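Worked example 2:
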Amino acid sequence: MKNKLTPTHTLDWYIKWTGTVFILAGMVLTSQNLFPYNMIVTIIGEICWFTVAFIWGDRALLVLTSVATFILLSGLIQWGMS
């Protein structure tokens, strides 16, 4: 059995799992076509993961979460303007 590489019950661990739950909840809301709640919930998850990426210094994850958040926010802004 392979040992875990990441510690548990640290600040980044709690943020990581909170973000994961929010992103999964956002997917469920998307599957139920509950707009704009799906985007709001997913943005919260993306911000959590951005925070984790910053703590870890993971540039790929920083880019991914930044772009995802920007795309979701631009969709919310466009929705708000219509």
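The chain is about 80% helix and 0% strand. The CA atoms of residues 26 and 38 lie 5 Å apart.
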